[in-house]
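Researcher: Checking consistency across runs. Here is Protein YjdM again:
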Amino acid sequence: MSKLPNCPKCNSEYTYEDGSMLICPECSHEWTLQAEAEDSGEKVIKDANGNILQDGDTVTVIKDLKVKGSSSVLKIGTKVKNIRLVDGDHDIDCKIDGFGAMKLKSEFVKKV
């Protein structure tokens, strides 16, 4: 059995799972593991559909994107393999076949 975290409100060790929620029976506090990760200072990067992205994931571009400094366009449906998550406005660093190294915003991709 996996060890569930203590309640962040009253520090009770008797928390239990109810679907995707964690519940404390002593103070009735409800929270999710995702909210706990965000509260701990970890930056959570999500795609356009709300899926959590991680280093090494494969994503697909969901919108035609103009490439700055070039006349070419990154077409919808372009698959990008082995992404790296970085800090900043453009939070995905990747290499795209035919384009080279690029930075993308996570709001314009979806996880495959």
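Researcher: Does this match what you'd expect to see?
Model: One thing to look at in this run: The longest helix spans residues 33-39.
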